[in-house]
Each structure stands twice: as structure tokens, then as C-alpha cells.
Amino acid sequence: MNVVLDVRDLCTAFATRAGVVRAVDHVSLTVHAGEVLGLVGESGSGKSMTGYSIMGLVEPPGRVVGGSIVLDGREITSLSPGEMRALRGNRVAMIFQDPMMTLNPVLRIDTQMVEAVQAHDDVSHAIARDRARDALARVGIPSPDERLNAYPHQFSGGMRQRVAIAIALLNRPDLIIADEPTTALDVTIQGQILYEMQTLAQESGTALIWITHDLSVVAGLADRVAVMYAGRIVEEGGTADIIERPAHPYTRGLIDSVPSRNRRGERLRQIPGMTPALTALPEGCAFQDRCNRATAACAVAPPMTVARPPYEAQRVRCHHPLPDPTA
Predict the structure, then answer these.
(1) What percent of the chain shows pLDDT beyond 70?
(2) How many whole angstroms separate alpha carbon 84 and alpha carbon 238?
């Protein structure tokens, strides 16, 4: 499959009074056409900042300080602000957790969608409006012609999120980054949107990065999963491999903390402790203080990312990876 996005050693840092925050620390990932990559981790793990860095949306005092981002064979870290604006919404788009970050509350839906089309494509108002109507229909909004004349406050939360997704799809981007877009929605609507996004990726060939804190969401959506902790990817691989035989203790903890995996009446499992402050990461492995497998070696040097035999596509950053339960 064609590689749509190739990120290598991406580093994003923020200068604060407490010191330099390494929000994204040497992150590398690849996404192919039509593929869904789940980017998973706790709040503060750096997953959303990875998405913002790819989109060129990091604002001072933060900035991308290193690494390479290649989109469709084009290095984009060196592009000017004007060139990035031409790219955003056209070749790469982002769906935010709050749809009102995308929608203007005082403009009708058709006005916003037509502007989004004409900003990147020299077409008439009628053609742009037809594309807007088709995009609404693709994400399952009934009576799209009527809905185009509505304002955002006239939609439910789930419908607003569908409109935001439709706007992301308007210019048929090569890559969509979805930052927890279904977190605030009820389970039924969440399931519908997940199914629609997976179908759209398969049918259109658009690559999709789905950012979430919930492994149960990506279990039925993503082709591959990358798990982030303290600004780094600690494990990646095929979704089935990650769910069925996690190699990193942190991944195991995320899976065990899903309520449906507990017996009735049993206490919910949780990962002890808190994510360390990014201004004062410990020497060695950042997860050592919360890990029941940590040894003296974990406090001396950070682990390297290595393949997990015999699953060469599964890679883990850990001195003491978990044994394969299926072996």
C-alpha cells in the first residue's frame, strides 16, 4: 500500500518557567492509504500534541524542534505558514473533540462548507454547495439540503460532530487526524460514527489517525495501534496483536482498566500512580515508578524500541516486556 504519512523522530517542546516540556519525544509512525491507526494513551501522554504537530498547529511557546514529517512524499516541516494553510483542509484535515472548534456558531452550515471548498478549489458556488450536500449525506445526516440552511445550534451534539467530519471530508484529503471526536457522544452515536469513518477510509483510501484514551474504541476500528506514554510511543503493532498479547506493562494496564474485562463484583483494575511531570522525567524508563516489573536496569537507561519475535510487526520499548500468553 502507498505510504501517506511517514513521521520520523518527531520532537515538540514547550518552554515553561518550570523547564522545557518534551510533549512529543522522538515519535515515529507510518500510515498507509486506507489504513486506520489508533493512537492511544492517557491524558497528557502527547497523542493530541502529535496530531497538532503534524497539522502545523503548535503555537508558541511550543514548537516542533526536530524530526521529519513526510506527507505523500513531501517534507512539510519546512513549509511556510502560507503553504501549510494551503495544505490543511485540503490534503490533510483534523476533526476535533469539540465540533464547535470547527464550526462558527453565527454562520449557516452551507456558508461554512462552501467556504471550505472554495478556499482550496476554484469552483462555482453551486458546485461547492453540491459537494457540501453530498458530504453531509455520506456521514448519515438526513435531509442534507434542509440541514445546509441550518445553524450549528440547531443540531444535536452527534449531528454537529457529523458536520465537522463532513467538512474534513470535503476536499477528499489524503489524511484525516481525528482527536477523540466521539468522547462526548452517547454510545449509540459513537458506534455509528466509528462505523462510518471506517467505511469511508476503506472506500476512499483516506488514511486515518484516530486519537483516543480508550483501547476498546480502537479495538474494532483500527488496523494498527500505537500506544503513547510520556511523549513516546512505547508499543505498536497490529490491533489484534496489541489487544491479545500486549508486550508493554503500560499497554496491559490500559487493557485491564476497561470495565468490561472485569468479573461481576470484582474491583476495577487500575494503573497505580500518576504520569510523571514532563519537565522532570526520571532517568531511564518513564514508566518505572508505576511498573511492577521494573528493576534497577529500568532506572539507568531508557529502553530501546525492538521487534517482538515472532511478531516482527509488533514493536515495544521496554527492558522487561511481558511474555507472550499464546506461546
Answers:
(1) 98
(2) 31
302 located within any domain: no
Would you say residue 129 has pLDDT above 90?
yes
Measured in residues, the chain has a length of 327
Q: Which residues contact 312 (CB under 8 A, 6 or more apart)?
A: none
Write down the pLDDT at residue 205.
87
Residues 77 and 107 in one domain: no
Q: What span, in angstroms and rounded, lies between the C-alpha atoms of 264 and 232?
A: 35
Q: Which triple of cell numbers denotes residue 241?
A: 496483536
Give exposure, 237-246, as e/b (b: 16+ Cβ within 10 Å).
bebebbbebb
Positive or negative, the Cα torsion across 120, 124, 130, 136?
A: positive
**What total of structural domains would you count in the chain?**
2
Specify the higher pLDDT residue, 154 or 324: 154
186 and 69 in one domain?
yes
Cβ-in-10-Å burial (0-12, 13-18, 19+) of 82 comes to exposed
Rama region for 231: left / alpha / beta (φ>0; ψ in -120 to 50; rest) = left
67 and 45 in a common domain: yes
Cα separations in angstroms, 258 against 60, 213, 244, 271: 36, 11, 14, 11
Task: Give the dihedral sign, CA 221/223/229/230.
Answer: negative
Whether residue 134 lies inside any domain: the answer is yes
Beta pairing class for 36-40 and 207-212: parallel
- 1 falls in which pLDDT band (50, 70, 90)? low
- For residue 237, pLDDT over 80 is answered with yes
Please state, rounded to an integer, the average pLDDT across all residues of the chain: 90
Is a pLDDT exceeding 80 seen at residue 47?
Answer: yes
- The 3-state DSSP class for residue 134 equals helix
Cell numbers representing residue 74 in the block: 513531501
